[in-house]
Amino acid sequence: MATESRPHPLRRARWIWLPLAAAAGLLACGRAPGPGSARGDDRSAVLATVTMLADGAAALLGPEVPVATLIGPGVDPHLYRPTRDDMGRLLAADLVLAVGLHLEANLEGSLERLSGEAGGRSRLWTLGAALDPAGLLGTPVGAEGLASLDPHVWMDLPLWSAGIAALAVELGQRRPAEAAQIAARAEGYRARLEQLDGYLAACIDSIPPERRVLVTAHDAFRYFGRRYGLEVRGLQGLSTESEAGLRELAELVELLVARRIPAVFVESSVPEQGVRALIAGAAERGHAVALGGVLYSDATGPQGSPAGSLIGMLASNAETIARGLGGEPPAGGFAAWTARTPSAGDAPAPRGAGIESEEERP
Amino acid sequence: MIWLRSDAGRVDPALAQVPLSVTGLTAGYGDRPVLADLDLTLGRGELSAVIGPNGAGKSTLLKSLLGLTRPWSGRVRFFGLPLEQARARISYVPQREEVDWGYPASAREVVEMGRYPRAGLWRRLDAKDRAAVDQALERVGLEAQADAPIGRLSGGQQQRVFLARALCSGAELFLLDEPFAGLDARSEAGLHTLLAELVAEGRSALVVHHDLSSVAERFQRALLLGGGPPRLGPVAEVLAAEALERAYGTRLAP
Amino acid sequence: MDFELFWRALCLDAGPNHAWVAAALCFLGAAAGQVGSFALLRRRALLVDVLGHATLPGVAAAFLLALALGLEPRSLAWLWPGGALSAALATYAADWLLARTRLEPDAVLGAVLASFFGLGLLLLSHIQTLPGAASAGLDRLLFGQAAALQRSDAVALLALALLAGALASLYGRRLRTLAFDPGFARLAGFRPERLDRLLHALLGLVALAALPAVGAVLAVALVVLPAATARLWSDSARRMTHIATGLGAAAGYLGAALSRAAPELSTGPLLVCLLGLAFAGSLAVAPRHGLLWRGLRRRAALERWRAERALP
Question: Rounded CA gap, C234 and B71, in Å?
Answer without folding.
Answer: 41
